[in-house]
Fold:
Amino acid sequence: MTEEFDDKLDSAARQLATEISPERDLWPGIAEAITTPQRSRWTPMLAQAAAIVMLVGASSAVTYIATKNDGGPIVSVAPELVFEQAAFGSNYHLGPGFQDARNSLRAELDVELSRLSLEAREDIRANLNLIHQAIVDINTALEQEPDNVLLQQKLLRAYREELTLLRRVGGLTRNVMRRNDI
Amino acid sequence: MMKKLIAIVLGILLAAPATAEEVNRTLDAASNGRVHISNIAGEVTVNGWSRDQVEVTGELGRNVEELIFERDGNKVIIKVKVPKNGGRGIDSDLHIQVPQGSSLDVSTVSADIDVKKVRGEQMLETVSGDVDTEGGESDVSAEAVSGDVTVNGQNKEANTRANTVSGDVILVRVAGTADAQSVSGDVTVTEGSFDRVDMNTVNGDILFRAGLRDGGKLVTETVNGSVDIEFDGAVSGRFDIDTFNGDIDNCFGPKPERTSKYTPGLELSFQEGDGDARVKVSTLNGDVSICR
Structure:
């Protein structure tokens, strides 16, 4: 892909004119400007101060734009949507949206687990660990074959399994509790 | 001495918790209405019968506040009400008879669910317990977190969805479409005939011994487990099989190929006949066997 792009660029460059003639003769004006230079309306110090002010202003604006969303409300992202965007493999990684959704579900799970028996809690945690181990195993295999489509699909599926489990446990418990809380 | 003994016996009797309460109640119901059942702990068994009545028998835990049993139009509600903080003594065993054409909506936390002879749609959920149902002529959705899920169908067209986290999923004589999933358990489908089947587990084996119809689709996925497929009847269509670390045993003819010279992965893709069925099998660590 890079070579193809370079070839196109070279071809386009070769088609450019090697000399460009101005529409009118500018040299008399240039010569006059050299011999009698006009004074700038701004002194050099004033110009430098203005540049510094502009730089600081621009920097502050960029910083504000970059950080203004950090303090805002966290937008919850539906796991299905996250996964549609979460393509990964050798050139991709899971985005912050996925992590936000996962962290949110994890926090919810901890609350819901407290309503279950010790046995059920341990069972669910063991299964979450199992999924995590599967993710580790798949990632280990991906290190050997980063572009293996099967492994990428498996990894995607494993992440989806985890989110599904997190959602299901919370949902099931809440449903039954609500129905009895009358 | 005698007085002391009497006092001790009386003390024990007074300190003893209230005993469990027997229940035996009946309500008239629609022949094809919906029955909602909710019981946090214990057991729920549901049987379809020929009467247009719902009957509840069984035993309520000693700390249960009350059994709510009421009819609202075509809907019958059965709820075991327990103290908000739960606690001990709330285990209740409910044995419920419903009209055969009823639909069911059963929710429990720590209780087994057992359903027989009910023909309507079923939605069964438990957290910790087994779900065992005779699928009828309608859709079934059966879910557990820590427990096995078993659906015994009658080869009638339906959408069947069965999943658990820690346990096995078994579908027998189910037809139409099925979605069977587990995390740490085996997933088994036998004796059915399908347009679409999805079978998935993380740590478990997958067994499919059923028919795939013309244009049908079978998708099986596991991470650590084997896949064993034996079609009941001919299958004509496209096959795609992948394993990262395992063998592929195929009765259809073509031999699998290595996916890489550095890893033991194998893949096998071929067209059998000129049909448009689709079979997709993948596992990370496990063998695949596919025959007819």
Summary: DSSP finds seven helices and no strands in chain A. Chain A touches chain B at residues 115-117, 119-120, 123-124, 126-127, 130-131, 134, 137-138, 141, 144-145, 148, 150-151, 153-154, 157-158, 161, 165, 168-169, 172-173, 175-177, 179-182 (CB under 8 Å). Residues 79-179 of chain A form one domain.
